[in-house]
Amino acid sequence: GSNGALTFDVEKNPNAVPATEREALLQNPGFGKVFTDHMVTIRYSENTGWHGWKIEPRRPLALDPATLVFHYALEIFEGMKAYRLPDGGATLFRPDANARRFRNSAERLGMAQMPEDLFVESCRALVRFDRDWIPSSEGASLYLRPFMIGSEVALGMKPSSEFIFCAIASPVASYFKGGASALTLWASENFTRAAPGGTGAAKCGGNYAASLAAQAEGLREGCDQVVFLDAVERRWVEELGGMNIFFVFDDGSLQTPPLTGTILPGITRDSLITLGRDMGLTVREEPYGMDQWQKDAESGRLREAFACGTAAVVAPIGKVKGRQHSFTIGDGNAGLIAGRLKAALTDIQFGRAPDQHSWLDRL
Ligand code: PLP
Ligand code: COI
């Protein structure tokens, strides 16, 4: 809960969406297309530090065309969800982990590092204020998108002396159209996402821009998502454009690529490692090669693969294609272990199972 130390200036949205219209929108929100009535904004300047904490109507940000973010992509963001609980209350899931990652992203991009309690309190404040926007339909939640931009007006290539932090919220259902069917991945050989020493472990907008040509190629090839390989050997499986990846073997063990600096340290990934071990499964954080993946899929040693992330939750992978690869995993459908891990995770998030690891932040 709140320590009550932070007070936000509040400006209520005079044009808030009427309740009946809101309820209709919440029935079928899709992903990232519907937004709540308010947003949080906080400013930073070198001279005054963090200031001007506001809850205000969601509206356009007015920015000078020479603002640093437009030219040098000085932007970081987070993704987290608020869940409706069976008793009608609401909760965030591990917001402290998002706050820590946000600081790490800021550090990598030479941006101001927001204190973790200020980050968490901003998210709590927005959800409390717009709590009527948390859907209560099965599997739906309120997705929070906190982000920060370099807002100094300057064209010189230098760190920004001013920043704007903003958090918006969007009621969401499934990230994928058509829900739960297994994904077909495109193994990108032309493009990589992140190189050693680069920004792969930071959640910065530039990483996502850099992955879009590969995603377009994947879509042209009839695939749903891209799986990126390491930039040096083009051999090791790293992650998807917006999800981490897990493999499930015939001995019941799980494997996921290690955090070597070129992939995002996913909070879902970390949670699933813990829940897998809770179930008595062996979980390895070890590199997995593309050729080995195909070999293991063909021999049946590999039983399942799945992607995971806040937006996607747990998404089974059915097929993999590429210039040099084409194979099916298991029978091409959702696997058993993926289903059990997804249930274990979402049962905690939605308050249907005990919160053994103290991951919930009740509002
Ligand atoms: N990898 C990338 C590139 C992502 O954008 C995301 C989504 O946030 C993830 C992995 C999964 O991270 P998390 O589980 O913290 O949402
Ligand atoms: C998330 O899962 O929160 C992400 O940021 C991934 C994005 C592609 C929606």
TrEMBL record:
GO terms for biological process: isoleucine biosynthetic process; L-leucine biosynthetic process; L-valine biosynthetic process. It comes from the Bacteria. Keywords: Amino-acid biosynthesis, Aminotransferase, Branched-chain amino acid biosynthesis, Pyridoxal phosphate, Transferase. This is Branched-chain-amino-acid aminotransferase. Its cofactor is pyridoxal 5'-phosphate. Acts on leucine, isoleucine and valine. Signal peptide: none annotated. CDD domains: BCAT_beta_family. Belongs to the class-IV pyridoxal-phosphate-dependent aminotransferase family. The modification N6-(pyridoxal phosphate)lysine is found at residue 203. Its EC number is 2.6.1.42. It catalyses: L-isoleucine + 2-oxoglutarate = (S)-3-methyl-2-oxopentanoate + L-glutamate; L-leucine + 2-oxoglutarate = 4-methyl-2-oxopentanoate + L-glutamate; L-valine + 2-oxoglutarate = 3-methyl-2-oxobutanoate + L-glutamate. GO terms for molecular function: L-isoleucine-2-oxoglutarate transaminase activity; L-leucine-2-oxoglutarate transaminase activity; L-valine-2-oxoglutarate transaminase activity. Pathway: Amino-acid biosynthesis; L-leucine biosynthesis; L-leucine from 3-methyl-2-oxobutanoate: step 4/4; Amino-acid biosynthesis; L-isoleucine biosynthesis; L-isoleucine from 2-oxobutanoate: step 4/4; Amino-acid biosynthesis; L-valine biosynthesis; L-valine from pyruvate: step 4/4. PANTHER family: BRANCHED-CHAIN-AMINO-ACID AMINOTRANSFERASE, SUBGROUP IIII AMINOTRANSFERASE. SUPFAM superfamilies: D-aminoacid aminotransferase-like PLP-dependent enzymes (SSF56752). It is an enzyme of class 2 (transferase).
